[in-house]
């Protein structure tokens, strides 16, 4: 009879591959940043934040221009040409124009920001973004007196984006922020994750990240930024105003009409996998609550 090899360690004791990869890439990522002479400081990092793996972040996506299934962006977003890339910055600014991606990056400090990321669908991840503060870009183009909002627009390229053939949204994907939200130091324009250039499925070459708002506010693959004095069109808000507010701040006390927002499903096999309570403003309450003083957050949701 063959001898059986027994152990008191079960399958559950094996370090999940995602966690292992994760550590390695975190180290590789920060090394790359320092090697490139960039400011590799981890700003606003929180001790309890264990970033999701590269695999989680790049294979479970929402980018409807490439399809509505979570796996579609990873399969089809490689069709998007991201070089060359330019962004039109217009409206109430002193220096309107078409800026190449390279011009946009000139003089910007790329930092690593490890942020919680909470989708309105009630799943979440922790993502180590690389990017710069939107406030720095706005300062460079010169925001004019009277501007109160910032509007953003994603590329619309039917030849490269199979998902836009379906009328899921009124394309192009558009979003907006109040100017003070846009100027907040937590609001970044992200150009990478884990120290690598932004993968197409995550919004290459440049996207918005607003960590205290539901993920759909963090618009991808931006081609236009407009300063305006009126509340801009926002795709999800326009499509279903009862379900998706203009503000869409993460708020466990205000449920989506079709599901609870009190808890969220942490994607991945890490230490905090499973359902966890959702935090007010996604855990950034101290930093951003003052922006909404005096507002009824169940009405202006
Ligand atoms: N931006 C565009 N242009 N198109 C989209 O479909 N989806 C949003 C947001 N930005 C989306 C978008 C939603 S619903 C979420 S949750 C996040 O992107 C997902 O970002 P991730 O795939 O990098 O995690």
Task: Walk me through this protein's architecture.
With 301 residues, this protein is an alpha+beta fold. The protein has a single domain (11-292), classed as Sulfite Oxidase, Chain A, domain 2, CATH 3.90.420.10. The protein has 8 helices and 12 strands. It has helices at 17-35, 54-59, 72-76, 101-105, 134-141, 179-182, 235-239, 285-288; strands spanning 86-91, 97-100, 111-118, 123-133, 149-154, 174-178, 188-193, 196-197, 207-209, 222-228, 263-266, 274-277. Strands 3, 4, 7, 8, 9, 11 and 12 form a 7-stranded mixed β-sheet that branches. The chain has a 5-stranded mixed β-sheet with strand order 2-1-10-5-6. The protein is globular and about 45 Å long. The termini are far apart. 42% of the residues are buried. Residues 1-47 have low confidence and may be disordered. The protein binds ligand MTE.
């Amino acid at each position: 009879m063959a001898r059986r090899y027994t152990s008191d360690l079960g399958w559950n004791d094996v370090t999940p591959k995602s966690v292992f990869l994760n550590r390695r890439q975190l180290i590789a990522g920060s090394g790359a940043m320092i090697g490139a002479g960039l400011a590799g400081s981890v700003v606003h990092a929180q001790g309890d934040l264990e970033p999701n793996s590269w695999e989680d972040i790049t294979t479970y996506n929402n980018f409807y221009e490439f399809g509505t299934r979570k796996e579609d962006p990873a399969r089809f977003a490689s069709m998007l040409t991201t070089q060359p890339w330019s962004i039109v910055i217009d409206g109430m600014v002193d220096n309107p124009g078409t800026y190449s991606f390279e011009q946009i990056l000139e003089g910007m400090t790329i930092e690593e920001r490890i942020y919680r990321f909470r989708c309105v669908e009630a799943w979440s991840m922790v993502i180590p973004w690389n990017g710069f503060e939107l406030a720095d870009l706005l300062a460079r183009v010169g925001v004019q007196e009277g501007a109160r909002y910032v509007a953003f627009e994603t590329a619309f390229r039917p030849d490269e984006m199979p998902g836009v053939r379906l009328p899921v949204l009124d394309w192009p994907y558009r979003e907006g922020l109040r100017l003070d939200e846009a100027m907040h130091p937590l609001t970044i324009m992200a150009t990478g994750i884990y120290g690598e250039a932004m993968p197409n499925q995550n919004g290459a070459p440049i996207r918005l990240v607003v960590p205290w708002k539901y993920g759909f506010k963090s618009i991808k693959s931006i081609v236009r930024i407009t300063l305006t004095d009126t509340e801009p069109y926002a795709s999800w808000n326009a499509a279903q105003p009862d379900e998706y507010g203009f503000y869409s701040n993460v708020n466990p006390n205000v449920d989506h009409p079709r599901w609870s927002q009190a808890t969220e499903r942490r994607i991945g096999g890490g230490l905090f996998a499973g359902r966890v309570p959702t935090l007010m403003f996604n855990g950034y309450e101290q930093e951003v609550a003052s922006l909404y003083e005096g507002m009824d957050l169940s009405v202006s949701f």
